[in-house]
UniProtKB/TrEMBL annotation:
<feature type="transmembrane region" description="Helical">
    <location>
        <begin position="55"/>
        <end position="75"/>
    </location>
</feature>
<dbReference type="InterPro" id="IPR052728">
    <property type="entry name" value="O2_lipid_transport_reg"/>
</dbReference>
<feature type="signal peptide">
    <location>
        <begin position="1"/>
        <end position="16"/>
    </location>
</feature>
<keyword id="KW-0732">Signal</keyword>
<keyword id="KW-0472">Membrane</keyword>
<keyword id="KW-0812">Transmembrane</keyword>
<feature type="transmembrane region" description="Helical">
    <location>
        <begin position="138"/>
        <end position="156"/>
    </location>
</feature>
<feature type="transmembrane region" description="Helical">
    <location>
        <begin position="82"/>
        <end position="100"/>
    </location>
</feature>
<protein>
    <recommendedName>
        <fullName>Nose resistant to fluoxetine protein 6</fullName>
    </recommendedName>
</protein>
<keyword id="KW-1133">Transmembrane helix</keyword>
Length: 167
């Protein structure tokens, strides 16, 4: 949050040059700073983003807030917890598939670059559509997190006192 405060208020005073005031003062930061405090900035368009690299912090925090649901269900009702996590992983993959087919998104951006050589602006629009509708969203990013939670829970229940190095 210190970086956000510095980026929105003090950055314009730290440099000089012919284009520095236009570059350093981003009006989007002054309008949308509160989204970064609440960790919901990954639900806005990338065009309206102040610090584009913070989408991962928001997605990670959103999944972290949901993780007690899965952990408590695993501790309390193990079978139900595994089913809940498996269904969530499946629904996350299904949402990726449905969003990709609905918007006809680019599955690998540079593989299809030769199709868009004549119209580079259309290619870049499709990449930003992919990033905004699929890449930044927590419901498409929860699968690897839940796989890690399930593996952590599985190893938590194992007894590793008899493990010896074999090298």
């Amino acid at each position: 949050m210190i970086v956000l405060g510095f980026y929105t208020t003090l950055l314009c005073y730290t440099g000089s040059g012919p284009i520095w005031p236009e570059y350093a003062t981003n009006p989007v930061c002054k309008e949308n700073w509160w989204r970064y405090l609440l960790y919901i900035n990954n639900f806005e368009l990338s065009v309206k983003s102040c610090m584009l690299w913070c989408w991962h912090l928001a997605a990670e925090m959103q999944v972290y807030v949901l993780s007690p649901i899965f952990l408590l269900s695993l501790l309390r009702w193990q079978r139900f917890g595994y089913c809940l996590a498996s269904i969530t992983i499946f629904l996350s993959g299904l949402s990726c598939f449905l969003i990709t087919t609905e918007y006809n998104l680019i599955y690998c951006s540079f593989v299809q670059l030769d199709l868009y050589i004549g119209d580079l602006e259309s290619f870049l629009d499709r990449i930003w559509m992919y990033i905004d509708s699929l890449y930044y969203k927590p419901y498409t990013r929860i699968s690897p997190y839940l796989i890690g939670v399930l593996l952590g829970y599985h190893f938590y229940g194992k007894n590793f006192k008899d493990i010896r190095n074999r090298w």
